[in-house]
Design goal:
By secondary structure, the chain is mainly α. 57% of the residues lie in helices and 3% in strands. The protein has nine helices and two strands, in the order H-H-H-H-H-H-H-E-E-H-H. It has helices at 2-18, 25-37, 55-70, 79-92, 96-108, 116-123, 130-143, 179-192, 198-210, and strands at 156-158, 164-166. The chain has a two-stranded antiparallel sheet with strand order 1-2. Helix 1 (2-18) packs parallel to helix 3 (55-70) and helix 4 runs antiparallel to helix 5 (96-108).
Length: 215
């Protein structure tokens, strides 16, 4: 549902820039109601209505809902309730990615906590993967904390077609941690950095096109 909502919001933005009338407002409002209906009592979401909460799913949904709010849709989400719960979770969590997602959600909700001590603690994690490194850099960008992109050069690779991507060449991949996902994350970071040139972004775009599969 959240993915459909993100797609429709993107379609609305595209219609605006093309000067066209957007005709799916009712569908967007319907999806927002469905997400609200599936929200758990503590304010978060799981894979399904009655499943355990998932910070990954909750982040995905809150990204969609926050974007909807920015475009003028009413969502009626109690952000203070979610913020209070996640600050408590942040203090008790010992999981690297759980902390990353909590900090991203808190940033999304406009929380005024001091992010630096938590990010510094994350940087002390041993044997951080490329995905973990990129996640920390993205978090620093979101929180307005100084970061350095020089270390990314070590992970930059080129395809036979001259397109660029980022990999740590690990064999242990999953849905959220693989060359495509890492390159997407690197692309977002580089695109948001004012010191980078557009030529490098074009080579990364072409890498994604190069890797498209049927369907």
């Amino acid at each position: 549902i959240a993915s459909k909502l993100k797609a429709l919001l993107a379609e609305k933005n595209i219609a605006y820039y093309k000067g066209e009338k957007f005709k799916n407002d009712n569908e967007i409002e319907k999806l927002i109601r469905l997400l609200k209906k599936n929200q758990k009592e503590n304010g978060l979401w799981g894979w399904w209505k009655n499943s355990d909460e998932s910070l990954w799913i909750s982040l995905h949904i809150l990204e969609a809902i926050t974007h909807a709010e920015q475009l003028g849709y009413r969502t009626s989400i109690n952000k203070n309730e979610i913020t209070e719960l996640l600050i408590w979770e942040l203090e008790s969590s010992h999981d690297f990615y759980e902390k990353i997602r909590i900090l991203k959600i808190l940033n999304l909700l406009g929380s005024q906590i001091n992010n630096l001590p938590y990010i510094t603690d994350l940087e002390r994690t041993k044997n951080i993967s490329l995905n973990g490194l990129l996640s920390i850099i993205e978090l620093k960008q979101l929180c307005g904390i100084d970061y350095n992109l020089d270390t990314l050069d070590y992970y930059k690779k080129t395809t036979l077609f001259g397109n660029t991507y980022y990999t740590d060449e690990t064999k242990a991949t999953n849905l959220l941690n693989n060359d495509i996902q890492n390159s997407l994350l690197a692309y977002k970071i580089i695109k948001a950095d004012s010191t980078t040139d557009s030529q490098g972004l074009t080579k990364m775009q072409n890498y994604f096109l190069e890797n498209r599969k049927n369907g």
